Amino acid sequence: MRAHDIEAVTDEMVRTLRGHADLDWSAPAGDLTWSCRDTAIHVADDLIVYSAQLAAEAETDYLSFGVSVPDDAGPEEVLRVVDAGGALLASTVRTAHPGARGWHPDGVADPGGFAAMGVVEVLLHTHDIARGLGIGFSLPEDTCRTVLTRLFPDVPADPEDAAATLLWATGRGPLDGHGPVGAWRWDSSVRS
């Protein structure tokens, strides 16, 4: 995964959700317990924190900070923060040296690993928010296939339907021939 992948999915998230500020952003985001608004803030936080982890090359724990958005900020403002987070992570991935590493609880990651995690956060939570708002969103097949390869080494290799496989691997839907996934984790460790 590369910086342009982060930019592409973040642009798609903002494009998909912008203009729907009149809908109920306090509704649950899909099957999550978080609201649509809180889920979007979670995405922004992850993108910014991933950027900081990689930029600081913090390899032993998370840096001690988080992102907060004022309670009175509406959906459009929250999406601006998501957009900024995507730009920060893309810039950090683009400028990080290949040996840069940063800590994540699912494995110390390199720039490509942080890019893949950011892409997954954006894709999955856009899916969740779109479901909560009752609007359409389709996950891009090629991008799903790439993140499955990078972060989910135990899923079926080269799946016919990569979007459905990513949703299944993260407990968000069924996959023919496979039982449901309860608790799930990705593997962000650096690949040799």
TrEMBL record:
Domain Mycothiol-dependent maleylpyruvate isomerase metal-binding: 7-130
SUPFAM superfamilies: DinB/YfiT-like putative metalloenzymes
Gene Ontology MF, one: isomerase activity
Keywords, ordered alphabetically: Isomerase, Pyruvate
Top-rank taxon, per record: Bacteria
Residues in the signal sequence: none
InterPro entries: DinB/YfiT-like (IPR034660), MDMPI_metal-binding (IPR024344)
Stated name of the protein: Mycothiol maleylpyruvate isomerase-like protein
Native source organism of the sequence: Pseudonocardia sediminis
